[in-house]
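Researcher: Quick sanity check before group meeting.
Model: Go ahead. Protein one:
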Amino acid sequence: MDKSPLISNPFALMMNPDAVLAAMAGSDRLHRLQRRICKPLDKPLIPKAPDAAASFDDEIDQVEEPSHD
């Protein structure tokens, strides 16, 4: 069987995943790739010392609100 039409058509490859996995397992180019683990940077850095805005918020929270009688 000629595999060139299968390789050139990605939709045909989706219909035959075993052939894709077999080709990946036997690929020398994939085995030579440099591998590294990249960690996501989505965790924000939280400052340890309170800043001026946080201290202002704390001061406002301590003030008692006047009663509207």
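Researcher: Fine. The other one?
Model: Protein two, sequence then structure:
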Amino acid sequence: MGKAKRPQKSQSKTSNKHNRPKPYAAHGHNAASKPTSKKSGVQASPKANAVRQAPLTVPTIPFSAHDRILLVGEGDLSFARSLLDHHGCADLTATVFDSSSELTSKYPQAASHISALEAEGQTVLYGIDATKLGRQKKALREKRWDRIIFNFPHVGGKSTDVNRQVRYNQEMLVSFFKAAAPLLAQDGGTIVVTLFEGEPYTLWNVRDLARHSGLEVQRSFVFRAEAYPGYSHARTLGNIAGGGGWKGEDRAARTYIFQTKGGAVLRKRSVSVESEVE
């Protein structure tokens, strides 16, 4: 199948299911549906519904289907696959640090995600170091990206010493910020980083690292893994060597959006806002 064209806002309906973003309601949270009584099959009263149902919040999605998206440090590519299948993204480049053989050895499930992405004309690149973006592949520096997304960055088990781990991860993030910033689109391009809450991640001081790298914090919000059906958090060691039954997507996490200092404000169409936004 040929490379998917980037959708235009003025397009009419087409047969390509990935050209338009699906509303979050399609993920099983349809606010317009009217529950019926189990006993009678008749519509329950609005008052009864209010008691039975807690109000739903809409997760913040920091991109739109129209964006040119670069995914950095992907694990098993389940996040990229979710963006394709459930968010209608049609201009994706997903990069992984491992070689192709290392990736499928660590994450056997990655093979099906790669096939699905490439079948829809999306790009998967291997052996990409997040701290050297633009110096490795011509395709990365030739395009200006609307969103550069790095989920749960971590250097891996370089040391068991907490202070050293903190320093290694800080150095990695600073290098990533400096490498990613020049690749951003000038009309509102942003860098999106998601980290787990709590220590040792809070010790990284990601906001300060970004400021020292010439970026400013635009906003932050709670990361909601359920907004990405099919996504599962992949450990750096892989689900064979060190994954076990550990499910990182169940842990509390926070997403930070950074822009270049004095840069354009994020386009409104690229974000759905939830109540937890700071």
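Researcher: One line on it for the slide.
Model: The first helix runs from residue 46 to 52.
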